[in-house]
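Quick check before the chapter quiz. The format below is the same one you will see on the exam, so make sure you can read both the input and the output lines.
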Amino acid sequence: MFEASSFMARWRGLRPRPDTNGLMIDTRSVHTIGMSVPIWAISIDARDVVQAVRRLEPWRIFFDRRARRVLELPIDRVPPVVGVRLDRS
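Here is the expected output.
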């Protein structure tokens, strides 16, 4: 998993990084504006517990007020289940 800590890394998102296991962003929202393929948007709270999993189609916005960070996954990856605690190591 790649952690996007700079503005440019957050702006770039998953494009064109199809080989990644995901992109973790310290934010409550992500978008797919300008993308041509859907992604998984997974909101994660402060305890690293998955709060929501959404298939985000191109040109859409995802926001979750409970999120401390959002994990973007390519659509061909299997997303985690709501309520699961993620191991970030």
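If your answer matched, good. The beta strands are 2-4, 23-25, 29-31, 39-44, 50-56, 61-63, 69-74.
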